[in-house]
Amino acid sequence: MHAKPLGRIAGELLHRRPGGRRSGDPVGPDAFGLDAEKVGGFTAGTLDGPAEARFAEEVALVLPLSWSLTPRAEERLSEVGRHLGGRRQLLEWLDRHPGLPRLTARLFALMDNLDHFSERPPVIEAVSALRDRGAPPAELRDVLPPETTEETLADVAQRIEELLGRQEAPEAARVALATAGWLRGAGDAAPGSPEAAEMSEVMSRLRTDIAEAADVP
Asked: What are the boundaries of the region Disordered (predicted)?
C-alpha cells in the first residue's frame, strides 16, 4: 500500500469509529474469534509460511467483527496487534498476504481515510458539490444518505465494514472501488480547495491499491 494513505490511519485497533452505529447480531462466545494456540504460535514466531498465511486469513475474517467480539476473543485480536506493533503494522502485515488479507487491509485503509476526511468541513463541502454535479455511481445509490453531512463518508465506511463482517468481500470491494473512484472527482468539484485536492489524490491511490487486491481493472 502507498505510504500516504496508510499514514492517515489513526486510532486504536479495535475502535475505529467510537459511538458509531452498528447493525447485525453480535457473535456468540468466541465465535469468529482467533484460536488461542494459533495466536500463541504467531506471537512466538513458530508458525511456518503456509500456517502464517492461513492465520492471516483468519485475522482478516475477524477484524471487521472486532466491535462485536467477546472480551476473550477481542483480547486475542489485540494481542496480535500489539505483537506486530500497532494498527498500521497489523494492516501492513495483512497486506503482505494475497487474497482476503490484502484486500481487507486495503479496504480498512480506505475506511480509515473516509473517517479522517469526514472530520474536515471543506471536504464535506466538496462532496456536496460533487453530488450537485451529477448522480453518484449506481453502486452508491443505496449506500449514500440523502443529505451530505459530516456523517456521510463515515456511513459509507461503515457499510463497507458491515459487508466484510458478513463475509461479502466482493461486494465490499465493489462499493469501495465505486466510492474511491467517485471521490477522485472532489478536487474538480471544489477547485481551489487544498483539502479536496488532497482527498482526490489519496482516493486515486487507494482505488488503484484496492483494484489490484481485488484483481479487477
From this structure: 1-32
